[in-house]
Structure formats: structure tokens, C-alpha cells
């Protein structure tokens, strides 16, 4: 716990021989230069360098995609290359400008709205940011879910299913209790979401601990079970809305709703749950005995067992909490949005959580940042398409490129000629399969 | 073939691993390369074997400069290497292993020509007295024979210079003798041998010349006739070293550890320990000698609560703990595990976190769910100082430390509380002379404070240096318990190999009753 910046590195990633001859082994005779503990800020900045460059590279490559997929522009290259360069540039600027305006907002409009003190203008200027926050909330929670399990050496591919079960329980508690004050009802509904996800995480956890069943397979299969169970449950009298024949739930009471932070904007208090969860996960991982055990099991299960820790118990507890976090995502989406559950309400938040955890380097703060990035891309995509006609797919391509460059740090290092300081933990996703 | 290294310098970020090293290997000689861990022996040999490119300096073969881009070119130039960890495919036969990579083939379909390869292997092995069945599966062979296969592999590739990296670390004394005979035979045939080791006795017995490395530099070259163990140790470490463990006769008290008719199974379900009886008393060190793989690991795991006891019982101060490492810890048992990087430490955790790896769950290091960072930092700072752990800070990952310092971290963690029993497996494996001296001193100190100590070691020197009683383990049981005066190297070697000297005891006493009687003595 004295250093939360340790990155999970696959224990087998380096050949053991390297340890014996490791030239960087500390020479006991030479004391280190400077302070023994490198300043936190410098380390954070260095940690951000590669992701920032990966992002930059993704947008640069994305710019080529914009140009190359515009057939009018391509024709212009043949007839008037000079004009084509200008047109390409303005096309790129227009597209990325629209993406930015759609996700963060138009800076000019924001400033004038603040200056004019006009509430309505301000609200409408803040709509893009609000939409980004709405998309970010579930991604933070599912990202935390995957990241936490990963710290224990587990692949939680089941965040999607956990999210569905969480949303179902949250909705049931949300509509079935009537006339209770919000400060009791809302926590109950949110708690039910956590509980549902936790249950769905507990199953693969206990199966792995007791029988060794691989969590990847179990969680993937439980996603199908969850999805189809929801569809079934939504047609039962208990859940289905009266007078409807399709699979849709009753509406959650207003006392259990996550209300908007500002009137007229969709951004709701769910983001606070997500940020709070990030802080809680950070504390659990790096400041608690439980996290100490989890990380020990994740890094070196044999040594953890030697130290008297229970590997089984660590697997069960971590999967329980990881599931609960994904369940919170489900609760936050439903209680903060439509307040009614229908199948397919999640556009793959659980799976995007895997990517968010990877890009965030399985660190809670990194997960929040990555979730915001992908939330912004998601929110900005539709306005971008409306404004410039660039297909939505561009955003998916850019997302994929960001992931690609972050997953291949040596590629980014090679492009920008950055010297390797130390093998980082980005090849971590090779770990755990078959174990 | 004469091999010469001139001014080899190899730098790694922040470290000069080899600093202007000059080395000459004459045709037909055994050069002993002696040095502590981290002295640069392995780096130098990796440069020679083409795994690293030197930053400065050159390699000359028979006076001609050469440059190797990878082991393939080094092998082609006649350099062969036998690694400490064997590079063999267990499910292949000896012949298949040896021809792997240089396969002879027949016809357009390139069918393997096993017969030709086999004939050559038989020829080479007869010439050098390397007795090996070419059709045996490697997985069925004992370690000593596997090493012969490795040597054959290099000879098959027509090596003129053979590098042996710590070759005796896995062998019994008898197997070591056989290895020495093979080395002599090879040298007579004109092969040169570079013999890397940190064992002083061996290098004195085998080498024609000895070159000592320290901190990446050659500190001297000498011959066995001109030097002594003490002098070599001083050259290696850079200061005078106490080679004999300084200890008074034991003053045994009450039995602390009592093992009765113990049966423990290995991971595959075969009995690894069967019918073992042993008692360790407060204030004495019992050292278990034995060739690796005779059930020592399983025995240690059973005692320390990491493995189920199938039959019989393990009592620590009269209590039985069933497969619960934490309860065993609470009972005042320290465990120095056999493999420090696999079991004893979490390489990615900081030195501070590793210092509390077994005690993080109790005050003052935690209260409830909350870890107390300040208490951990405070304890780690104190222990690093007290146990002389050389680390730039307590916040670096323990994996960055040298082996000796890693072992000191484990010793600091395990020995820094009141103890009833110490179970230490291979406590000084791979450590340099200075660290061995330190760890041995700490163990004796704990004994004198009244702890019972059980040492498991495959290093006979260690067993003889530390043990107040020496138990020999073979195929899962204690075959004999000796007092140090009667424990000669030869007798221990025979017992470790499963041969019982006739005169020791009558036949029917060989089984466990004798061991029990000796154990309860």
C-alpha cells in the first residue's frame, strides 16, 4: 500500500534468467540520486505521456481516414491537388470541431452564455458536456469493475451481465416501493443494483474458487443468461408494465430517481456515484488489507498463499465487489435515465468497460479519465454526423485506434523515439488465460 | 582453440556490468571463473555466447577478432554453453534432444536420420566417458545424467570451448566427482572449459587457473597451488570473510517440532514424504541433507501449513494445525521458503510491503480493514537498517534487489519477532559468500535465543556448517541422523544417494524405527 502506482505485470512476461543477470539490479554501493521517492506529480505526468501520445496518434490517423473516405475530395486530388489540400484540411477541422462541440461544447457559446447570465443559453451550451457525463457514468463503473478484478488476476468479461441483473433489481425496488422519502428509497434502489451485480459476480467467483472453472468462460456465458433472464422477467406480471405486451418494466417511482443536477440537462447525480465508487475502489485496493491481499494474489498467488492469504476468498470477494460495481452501472443508467427497463438498453457498457480498464491502466483515476474520453467520443459522434455528414463509424475507428496504440506502447515509443524506461504493464492482458 | 577476451565492457542503464575485462582461456585448460552474484560472470558469458553485444572490447579466437550476433554464431565458432537450468525437452529421447536444431535428414522429404545421430552420440560419449543411454526419455533421467546430455549437446555441435554455468549446484557429491572426471577427459582431448562457480572448494579442486571477478572487474587470476579458500573468499567479497560458522555447541531444550509417521503427497498425488519421523528441540539446529526432489519441499510445506498432511501428524509445541499457514505463523513459526522469488516475495511489491507480507493483518500494521501505512513504513525503515538490506529506498520493487538482499528482506520479515521454530529451506541458495555469512549468523543467533531450527539444504557445506544434528533424507524418509563429527562428506553422499554404508547399522534398523530413535534422542 505504500505505492499505489505499481502496475500489474504478468509474472511470466520476463524470462526468469533475466532476473539473475538483471543489469539494472540495484547496486548496493551507490545510493540513488535525489529523493528516494520520486515525486508523485512527475510520475503521474510520465504515466500520462504514452496515453496522450496514443490519443494524438489516433486522431492523426483518424484525419487520414476522414480524407480518404471523402470521395469528392479524392476526385479533387486528381484535378487540383492544391485545392485538395485546402479542402482536406478544412474537412478535418470541421469534423473534429463538430466532435468537440458535440462532446464538450462550443467554447464561444459557453463564454457568451456565461457573460450574458442567460440561464437558458447556458443550459443549451452545456448540453454537450451533460451528454458526455451521461455516457461517462456507466463506463466508469464497468471500467472499475473490470480493473478491480484484473488486479486480482481475474478477467471479468461479465460486467455486461452483472449490469443487467443490477438494473433489474434496481428497477424492481424502484417501482415496487411507493410513498417512501427519496433519501431512503434511492439508496435502497441503488443498493439493490449493487446487490444484483454482486450476485452475478459471485457466481463465477465461487465457481473459480471451488472448482477452478475459468472465469472468462463462466462470465461470458452468464452474460447470455442475464440478458435472456431479463427478457423473460420483463414479461412476468411482477415486472411488466400494465397494459403492455412488449418486454418493458413498470416505471420507477420518482423517489428512486437519480435526478438531473441542473434542470433541463440530462446529466444526473449518477456521476457522483461513479466518482465515489472510483475513490472507494482506490482506497480498497491501495489502503486496505483486503486490497493488499487482492493485489498480492494478482501478482503472485504462490507467495500470497505462503503469506497465509486465502486465494479462494480473495477471488470470491473481489468478484463480488467487481460485480457490484457493474450492477451500480446498470442502476445508474436506469434510475438516472428512462427509469424503465427494456432489453438491450445497454449499448455494450460492460464490454466497453474492459477497454476502459485497459486504457486506464487498471488504476481508478486512469479508469475515470478513460471513461470520460470514451464517453465524450460517444456523446460527440451523433452531433458530428449531423453537422458534417461524417459517418458515426469514424468515432468507432478512432476509439479502436486509441486502444490499438495504447495496447502497443512500443509502437508509440518507436514513433516518437521515446526511450524505454522500464517494461510497463501494458502487455498485461496476456496474463491469466489458461491459468 | 585459444579464446581471448580483451577489454570487454558492457553497460546497462545505471550499471557497468563488465568493466574492461581481460580473460584468456588456453587450449586444454579449465579456467575457474569465480565471483559473487552480480559480479558480472553471467553477463560476461552472455557476451561470449553472443547474447549481448559488448559496448567495448573484442573477442579473439586463436588471435583473430570475431563478432557474434547471437548464440548461433557463437556455436558455429565452437563455443558451447551448459546453462544452470537445463534446456531439454522432457518428452524427447536423449538422441532427439541432442540433434534438436542440427537435425540430420534423409531424402527429399527430409526425414530425421536418428540412426546417424545416434551413432555419433554413442561415439562421442564413449570417447569422453559420458555414459548415457541415447534412447532414454529425458524425463526419466536423473539430474546428473541430464547434465551429461547437455554436455553431449555441445560436443555434438563440435564445441572447443565449453562454458559450464554453476554445474554442480544440482548434483550429489558423487555426481560431482563424475562430472569432474568428464571435465578432465574433455580437457585431455584439447577442449577448453570455463567453469563458473561460487563454490571455493570446487574451483580449487578442478581448475587449472582461477580468475576472480568483483563488481564487473577482474580482481585477479591465480592458480589453486598459489591460493587458498580464505584468500579467494577475500578476493571475491573484497574483505575478510569468516568461512566457518561461529557457533557454540547446542543446548537443546524441550521438543518444539514433532513429526510422526508423516505421509505427504506431491501435486500429482504420489507420496513424497512417507513414514517420516523427526523431532526438533528448542535451541538446536537440525539440518536435513538430501538431493533435491526427495520430498524435502513437501515436508517443509506440510510443516508450515501449505500442504495437507495425509497421514501421521505435525505437532508444533504439541499443537496440530491443519493446512493453515496463518495459524502456523501465529504459533511463532518462521518460514524461509525454498524459492524466494516464487514463494517468499512479491517482486512487484515494494520492499516495505514485502516486509509485512506475512504480518500486514495484525496491529500495528492494520486496524480492521485499514492498512496503517505509517506503521509499515516505520517498521520497514527499521528492518532495512537492522538487517543491512542494501536498497536505494524502501519504496522500490523488491524484484529490483539482488538475490542476497532479497533474502535479507525475507530474513528481516521472518526473524524480527519472537519465534518458537524456524523452518528454512535452501536459506542461502544462490547467495554470495558475504550474504551466506550473514544469514547463517542470524540463524545461529535465533537458535541461541531458544528457537528450534530446521534447515533443509542440498548444499552439504551448509548442512555441515549449521547442523547440530544432520538428518539425511532419501525418497521421503529420514534414512539416518548423524552428529557432525561422524558426518563425513563421503558418508553423507552415500546416504543421500540411497546407499547405506554396511557398517552403520544392521539392516532391519534401516527403516523408520531407527530414525525415530535417533530423532527422539
Question: Can you give a write-up of this model?
Answer:
The complex is a heterodimer of chains A (435) and B (521). Chain A has a domain at 134-370. In chain A, helix 2 crosses helix 16 (393-407), helix 2 packs across helix 17 and helix 7 packs across helix 13. Chain A has helices spanning 16-21, 40-68, 71-79, 81-103, 107-116, 119-151, 159-176, 182-211, 215-233, 270-287, 289-299, 301-306, 311-336, 349-359, 364-388, 393-407, 409-416. With 435 residues, chain A is mostly helical. The two termini of chain A are 26 Å apart. Chain A is globular. Chain B folds into 3 domains: 3-237, P-loop containing nucleotide triphosphate hydrolases (Rossmann fold); 255-332 and 418-519, Rossmann fold, CATH 3.40.50.300; 347-416, no CATH class. The radius of gyration of chain B is 25 Å and the shape is globular. The relative contact order of chain B is 0.10. Residues 503-521 of chain B have low confidence and may be disordered. Classes of the chains: A mainly alpha (435), B alpha/beta (521). Chains A and B meet through helix 1, helix 11 and helix 12 of A and helix 1, helix 10, helix 11, strand 19 and helix 13 of B.
